[in-house]
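Field reference: sequence -> structure
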Amino acid sequence: MEEMESLKDIINIKCDMYKDRVAFLEKNGKSPEYQEIKYSQIKEDVNALGTIMLKKLGLKDEKIAVIGENSYKWYMTYMAVVCGVGIIVPLDKELPANEIKNLLDRSKAKCIVYSSRKKDLIDEIRKDLPKDMVYIDMGKEKTDFDSYSLDELIKDGKNLVDTGDTDYIDIKIDREAFKILLFTSGTTATAKGVMLSHKNICANTVACYVLVPKMHDYTYLSVLPMHHTYEFSLVYIYGTSCGAKIAICEGLKYVAKNMKEAKPDCLFAVPALIENMNKKIEKAIKETGKEGLIKTLGKVTTGLSKVGIDLRRKVFKKIQDNFGGNLKFIFCGAAPVDKSLIRKMESYGFIFYQGYGVTEASPLIAGTAYDNRIAGTVGKAVHGVEIRIDLSENTDENSNVGEIIAKGDNIMLGYYENEEETKKALRNGWFYTGDLGYFDLQGNLVISGRSKNVIVTSNGKNIFPEEIEFEINKIPLVEESMVYGKKDPKDKNELLVCAKVTLDEQYIEDTYASARPSDEEIYNMIWEDIKKINKTMVPYKAVKALEIKKDAFIKTTTMKIKRFEELKKK
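Structure field:
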């Protein structure tokens, strides 16, 4: 089995091995067409940028922040820093100015590399940052007193390398040293800084080699934000380590357009993106007036695939063409996916993989394999990882649900400057994830939810909001839902199970184009559906109150609802 000593192996070994292959497809703003960037250019650019950061900017062993939309330059900056300069600090491009300033302060960053779209935001906080902060603009053409041009720095670095300067190139990597600082989602007051090493990220990359066939001939579409370890580790690091081609999406509203242009084989997604894809498919099917026939064909072709006759991609070619025509593999993580949705997508010929992970695990802990894709589970522990279920805090003696704990080379070094939280999370060699789950009879991991989200009744019964939300989200009128507990005004010792929902405005527009129902009528229709859901559950899980939100839920950049921020708004 192939091993990776450090991320520098990608630069020194893989970029030579795949030097003539295309590594990235990217729109540069000057042309509507995707432009090609080869693996040979990655090596040249990374070595040049690393050299100039050491020699001209004096950033040896410093923390260097990077912020901006997904781009080749973002990837190049990350690799240049971790492969010999210092510690990389990826930041969420959606953060407001004050939170970026606070994270720069907390990390003690000495340099920030930013896309030109973030220039105004960086300028806004300059006066409050250290006087010796180094500013590098990814899109600037010329360096001036204000900031450096990334392109000019690379050009200067290439000149140094061409004259024989190999100090950066010759640096040996300590694979166990702290080199990556990732802040978890949340406000700057609660966001924890996760410290990772080359060993952590490389362990996950090797685990991917074992989990799925090496995909060096495939094209990936990069949609999720690069600062998130799910996207960067599993698309960018894994992808470039095996010679894949990565097409960079222009943004969420361009996903469908970019799919048709790049014709990807693989898509790494979150449930919200898969749900949007499914809605587009269902809308197109409805317009044909052949829903019954297509549903029957889906059942027949799925049945045939189980006996070795797979006709799904041929039968559903028109659906495939809407996503570029080559999309074969959908990898989904960040949150659980409704198993009925998985089965539906697989019936159209997509191969659906699920994974489970957290930033602290670089991120992958468990994943489904080609021969073990059981809908509703996230598969087994990936190579090099051990998983257990800790039942010590379980208040329900009849339940086998407990906290998921993991051990392996992928587990973080600890939380940055936070010994108290580190001691809570890392105990006796195990990482306590804060997520709840159990093993099915085949040994596959099933995720129940977050421990901090669990609603505990007065008699010790656990209610997992995510399970109820899955059902509520199936209601046609509902876009998204959040289930939570609040004190019963009639009995302060009891909790009422409540649901907040947002409306699927597109469905309402398509279904009631001539006469939109009143707010009261919509409420009553949703409540009737919730009452039907209640009848399928044990009584203590029944939803007792409903609220329809007019505005969207507050979310992380991976589209997960920030529950506690939503509840604080009440």
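Note: The CA atoms of residues 381 and 569 lie 38 Å apart.
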